[in-house]
Amino acid sequence: MNSDKNNIIDEVTQGEYKYGFVTDIEMEMAPMGLNEDTIRFISKKKNEPDFLLEFRLKAFRYWKTMKMPRWAHLKIPEINFQDIIYYAAPKKKKELEGLDKVDPELLETFNKLGISLEEQKRMTGVAVDAIIDSVSVKTTFQDTLAKHDIIFCSFTEAVQNHPELVKKYLGTIVPYTDNYFAALNSAVFSDGSFCYIPKGVRCPIELSTYFRINAAKTGQFERSLIIAEERSYVSYMEGCTAPMRDENQMHAAIVEIIVLDDAEVKYSTVQNWYPGDKKGKGGIYNFVTKRGICKGKNSKISWTQVETGSAITWKYPGCILKGDNSVGEFNSVAVTNNFQQADTGSKMIHIGKNTKSTIISKGISAGHSNNSYRGLVKISKKAENSRNFSQCDSLLLGDKCGAHTFPNINVKNKSSVVEHEATTSKISDDQLFYCNQRGIDTESAIGLIVNGYAREVLKKLPMEFAVEAQKLLQISLEGSVG
Amino acid sequence: MLLNIRNLHVSIQEKEIVKGLDLSVNNGEVHAIMGPNGTGKSTLAMAIAGKGDYTITQGEIIYKGKTINNMPPEDRAREGIFLGFQYPVEIPGVSIINFMRTAINEHREYKGLPPISALDFMEKMEEKKKLVEIQSKLTNRSVNEGFSGGEKKKNEIFQMAMLEPTLSILDETDSGLDIDALRVVANGINKLRTKENAFVIITHYQRLLEYIVPDFVHVLYDGRIVKSGGKRLAFELEEKGYDWIKNEQTK
Ligand SMILES: Nc1ncnc2c1ncn2[C@@H]1O[C@H](COP(=O)(O)OP(=O)(O)OP(=O)(O)O)[C@@H](O)[C@H]1O
Ligand SMILES: [Mg+2]
Fold first, then answer.
1. ipTM attached to this prediction
2. Which of A83, A435, B118, B172 is in the most buried spot, having the most CB atoms within 10 Å?
3. pTM
């Protein structure tokens, strides 16, 4: 590698994280630390029914018996859970109290992030739930959605207005016993989105949640629940950013999706939490449990994710394919640069007959980062004639980064077929020179090649997201070649 | 003079490949470079285009009156130097359309022009596709990915047509082409010939030169141009091979 190229790598990997600013706003916070009082505090703040407080406390007691999981290919520093603030909400200003108005300061924050919460200014076709730290500040287009009897609101509101739905489904896909972070989230979750699509309704607009961490020393523990009744359809997207800080911040989320007969849910994520600086200082620890169940026959769930942010990512969106003929998809681009670490992949659990799943994972590693694919494909005895196809590709930019694949395949019947393909590649000097010779400089060339590499996944994203994701890939990586 | 190469020495990994080469090309001229395998033809082409690991240890490449020894390759391209590669690389997932639009826009930015409009770009694509008789089913694919040898070469000529270079260096663009494709490529080149534009055509076969009549033919041997002449030299080489030249050299 020549020194010119090294310079470009340096220049680009130092490229500023665009969303690193902090909004100076008065906050209401829980006292630092984690105990049953913290949990009662959160539950009270949210005026929760008893069943929910009970759920939280049970989860907390269970969590206390657990240990931090160490099986991932990640170096996770000791996390002091008493050193985190578990609830932080922007204070409503006096003059805005009682009104359904959003603090202009917060509107401005979201504007800066490219998210307009003023409906008339928004591109039509996307409803947004905007969540800052522990609370949702606004959900747009609720009226439009109500016309179709679609419920799209913050989790907190759902608890107040639709407690029966929350009670029926909460924790049914990801029980608090599922894993360490799921237990933690179940104890202290603050807000998130709730979405209910009634029978036979195709949601006419894209639904999206935008998560923003703002306050220092806080953790974000959101929880989302999506229910798609028979023959319904929804496309849902989430985005996330956080300020640049030297300390690490914790994000542990849960998403549960329930899909009934002939229904379909598309879930897309562009994860751009602050990744830390080029020396590996700061950044978000991102521990996420996302799982959906294809409960009904012919139902479908597809996860599409573009992961560029976070210092540590621990995330395995999965599908339980319970209904006969149901379909699960996982499409992922995960980029790590500098000292970022990602251990991500998918779980496909085949239970119903003729179920089908596809996993496409594209890992891109640069700098000193580590990027692992971890997958579980399980085909139970009853899941006759099921199929899985997995493809895990790794692209290495430079020679100080690592890429790993940990596929785990478990097939319990003879009529099913599982295929797994894996490749590792590099951007070659010849490819770069070919681009240079056409007048394209090395930075743009890398952007072009990386986007080409990820194209299969990017094209699954909703239009609005695809453009953003492409730019993001370019920013996260330009120039990092060896 | 468009291109003036003086006493050029080029090394790859410390090994000298081009060993004191001189070549002058004027606007409007077509030069053919022939010579045995492994004598430095591609190395010369790469050095003119500015590939990083081709180190110029001595001499000068002067293009449009400026020494370009240290000019980055993308700037050479934007200044109008095009290289049709002997072995074009595959760039998976990058569509030819996206690739060409990016390239054209970088050329335009260099000249202080705004990006090309989608409409103008598509029109240009159509026009050039006709010129080099290339099918949409090819241009809709990723750059060279899974292309046959001949298709790759056609794609090089298509890109040349799109970028409208002043100096085109074509490194064995005729190798691997069937007779029809050869004629199409040659026609394309002839249509792009103007009083301004010059071509340096590296080839092993005089066949191509039947279609594209060169003003000069040079023989490159052991890193130097050892013989130059008119188009008759090409016939002579085809007939007699290179031994007589090698013999002349060792005398
Ligand atoms: N990257 C490289 N590393 C080491 N040697 C190289 C490299 N590239 C070229 N060479 C050597 O330089 C010499 C000249 O190669 P070049 O490709 O310029 O030949 P050529 O005249 O184009 O041959 P051909 O007619 O076969 O295309 C050859 O001996 C070749 O092996
Ligand atoms: Mg050659």
1. 0.96
2. A435
3. 0.81
